[in-house]
Amino acid sequence: MVAKKHQKTLDDVFFDPVKTGIPWTKIEAMFAAFGAEITEGNGSRVRVYLNGIRAVFHRPHPEKETDKGAVKSVRKFLTNAGIKP
What we know:
This protein is α+β, with helices and mostly antiparallel strands and 85 residues long. It has helices at 4-14, 24-33, 68-80, and strands spanning 37-40, 45-50, 53-58. It has a single domain (4-80), classed as Metal Transport, Frataxin, Chain A (2-Layer Sandwich). It has three helices and three strands, in the order ααβββα. A hairpin with a 4-residue loop joins strand 1 (37-40) and strand 2 (45-50).
């Protein structure tokens, strides 16, 4: 069972139409709550490994919120890793 705050982030990621403005820190915290291995890459890159699936994301900057494209990528990654709301 995942904490309520992480469930809200998961629901936001899978919301249709795609939501923007989800703080990246909440997405990373949600990954960690699901047991993902998170490592730093070069620059703003962050590598995430979850349930045998790997992905590389770019932390948004200078903003702290994700855009539509990033949310779609997170959604696809989670789906491939077997995580759905």
